[in-house]
Amino acid sequence: MQLFKTRPSITQLQLLIWLAVSLLLFFSYLPMDGAGQSAVYTIVNTTFYAAIIYGNILFLYPVFYQKEKYVWYVLLVIIFLVATGVLRGYSTLLIYNTFFAKTPEHISQKAIINYVSGGVLIFIMSLIFRIAIAYFKLKQQTEEIMIQKSQAELNLLKSQVQPHFLFNTLNNIYYEAYREAPRTAALIERLSDIMRYFVDESPKDDVAIGTEVQFIENYIALEKIRIRHEVVVFFEKNFNSDLRIPPMLLMTFVENIFKHGIDKSSEQNLIGISLVQQGDYLFFKTNNAIHTEVASKRAAGFGIVNLTKRLTMLYGSNFDLKIDKSNNTFAAFLKIPIA
User: Fold this and answer.
1) Which of 191, 261, 274, 317 could form a disulfide with 288 if both were Cys (CB 3.0 to 4.6 A apart)?
2) How far is CA 165 from the centre of its chain?
3) What is the DSSP string of 41-89?
């Protein structure tokens, strides 16, 4: 018979350990004290053992020892062990005198010392307990990562069939369209490149900056066909072609321009984009006019918020992201390290 249908969690393992400790204490008291008294002593002592162990691993150790407050840690541990030992001694005696003793007894200094020294042993066990919990957490995380990796590999194998078919179909459509409408064929080619980017490049940790720029230019070309009037884009590029950056890092700003910075009824849609490398940093800037009607319909999005979170994960605090809305212009500025 299996106690757990799946692999037990850390909490379940701890419950099993405390159950085993309780049973061990109960049966060790039973020959001398009887079932009722043994059960009460088991509850009291298990409670104090848990207080010492979790008081150390959940509070004293992380708050003082891990923050290198070693003197405070030692002093507070001593105070904590003496206090719990004394409290445990008097609690046990109070319960005994109230419910089980024929004549009241008084606690001795030797008994207090025994309770305190017993707490020291439990405190040492708490360090072992903490190591065991950390080990099981690490083991559980490792297993979860391996399961996720295996699932991702399986999903990738499943997904490779459809993109392969789709790309071949797009190539065939491209050649057919090229005979009759070269401009349409060029747009199909850009769409195919974008889809290849999503499948082949975006899962990577970094991509060639030229690949990223080509993706942005393909996106701009496809967006422009949805707009009645011409959209003029000034794209300044000056960077080392060997440079590699995280994929989809610059796309948020460009996407926001076409979502919120274009007036489809206007013949004056000017977009400025600049991607320049200077020393050990890459500077990316965009600017576009703020159209009153478009701005009034603009919905609150999470693109910049999510981008900020991603930048923080990638670079910590070593990046600069600014948004400026002044002079009827929306401007975005991003500075990231490249060395």
Assistant:
1) 261
2) 35
3) HHHHHHHHHHHHHHHIIIIIIIIIITTT-HHHHHHHHHHHHHHHHHHHH
> Cα–Cα distance between 219 and 187 in angstroms, integer?
10
Nearest CA to 122 out of 14, 26, 47 is that of 47
**32-49 per-position pLDDT tens digit:** 888 888 898 899 989 999
Give the pairing of strands 329-337 and 320-326: antiparallel
**Exposed, middle or buried, 227 (CB in 10 Å: 0-12/13-18/19+)?**
middle
Q: What does the pLDDT look like over 62-95, one tens digit per residue?
A: 899 888 898 999 999 999 999 999 999 899 888 8
Output the CA–CA distances (angstroms, integers) from residue 124 to 57, 121, 132, 263, in the order listed: 11, 5, 13, 70
How far, in Å, CA of 297 to CA of 172, rounded? 40
Residue 317 DSSP label: T
198, 207 Cβ separation under 8 angstroms: no
Q: Does the pTM exceed 0.70?
A: no
Cα dihedral 38, 43, 45, 46, rounded to 10, equals 130
